[in-house]
Amino acid sequence: MDIKQLRYFTAIVQEGQITRAAKKLHMAQPPLSQQLKLMEQELGVPLIERKGKRLELTKPGKVLYDRTIPLLQSLEDVLTEVKETHDGLRGALTFGAVKSCFANLLEPIRLYKKQHPAVSFQIREGDSFLLGEYLKNREIEFAVIRLPIDMNHFSSIHLQSEPFVAVIPESWISNKLNKSSIPLNELQSMPLLLLHRLSGVGQFEMIVEEFKKQGVDPIIACECPDVNILLSLASIGIGAAIVPQSTLRSLKISNVKMMEITDFHVKAESAVIWLKDRYLSRSAEEMIKQIKSSAGVI
After folding, report:
1. Which of 58, 85, 112 is the last residue of a domain?
2. Phi and psi at residue 92, in whole multiples of 5°?
3. Cα(96)–Cα(294) distance, rounded to whole angstroms?
4. Burial of 271 per CB tally in 10 Å (0-12, 13-18, 19+)
5. 103, 142, 100: which is closest to 123 by C-alpha?
6. 3-state SS string over 199-268?
7. Domain with 77 in it
8. Are 161 and 297 in contact (CB under 8 A)?
């Protein structure tokens, strides 16, 4: 049994059909079926059984598949490392970013591209939970996310914290509100637009808990994982958004006024995370160093 056969086997499992797997591998169906039979003969056990139109793993087949996936991933890491040692920084760097964190990446990306013009970027957007799933599936190398997040699978570098701010529709601004800050209790009567990730505990729970600690019962008009949507809603007078301060640096929204929230004790925390025990390409390592430097993290 060799690496090529293991690649054939994983393709069959992932596609669920010999025909689709053969198409994915750019080969004919009969040779692929023959390779599967040879593997089963060598091991002396059936690896896959047919259930209707689909193929399903047997128990021995599941053991082989579960062991093969990390083996092939480790091989890819080794090949990438060897190639980079010879070629230097080039190719595509794939990473993720939460929209409300993206302002922290603007200067690092500008400096990085100036130093390494041969590297292109593939950027995936999502909330912290979704980007964590992308990392686990090895679809991206690292991500800049908002904390908190379950860190069991990840290594991380914490970036600087920043305050939350209220983004008020300009149509609401009166003499009373025509100032640079607003007390927390004045937000009590306003419909609020809050970030809420797809799964897990995040900024939404932190903000609501802070309101409750101060005896304020917030009126929540909208929950959404996309900060751009919340700010757009604020711009048409639907509600007041509460977002990390740096968000307004990368997202230009008209018809709103940013105000500091006094007596608000929680901070927005961000971090760079990547999968534990995964080899990071030199391109990824250099970008993470640039992010740390721009954020003033030692």
Report:
1. 85
2. -105, 135
3. 18
4. buried
5. 142
6. CCCCHHHHHHHHHHHCCCCCEEEEEECCHHHHHHHHHCCCCEEEEECCHHHHCCCCCEEEEEEECCCCEE
7. 3-85
8. no
Could you tell me the pLDDT band of residue 124, with boundaries at 50, 70 and 90?
Answer: very high
- Other CB atoms within 10 A of residue 31 CB: 11
pLDDT of amino acid 85? 55
Same domain, yes or no: 130 and 52:
no
- Dihedral angle over CA of 204, 205, 208, 213, nearest 10: -150
pLDDT tens figures, 152-197: 999 999 998 999 999 999 988 876 566 889 999 899 999 999 999 9
Nearest to 206 by CA among 127, 258, 265: 265
The residues near 198 (Cβ < 8 Å, ≥ 6 apart) are: 127, 129, 130, 225
For residues 71 and 130, membership in a common domain is answered with no
CATH of the domain at 9: 1.10.10.10
How many angstroms separate the first and last alpha carbons of the chain? Answer: 48
Nearest one of 196, 168, 191 to 100, comparing CA atoms: 196
pLDDT in tens, 13-29: 998 888 889 998 999 99
SS3 277: coil
Q: Are residues 31 and 176 in the same domain?
A: no
The Cα 213–Cα 167 span in angstroms is 22
Question: Which of 52, 85, 118 is a domain's end point?
Answer: 85
Residues 75 and 142 in one domain: no
Give me the residue label for tokens 């802070």: 210
Same domain flag for 166 and 223:
yes
- pTM higher than 0.90, yes or no? no
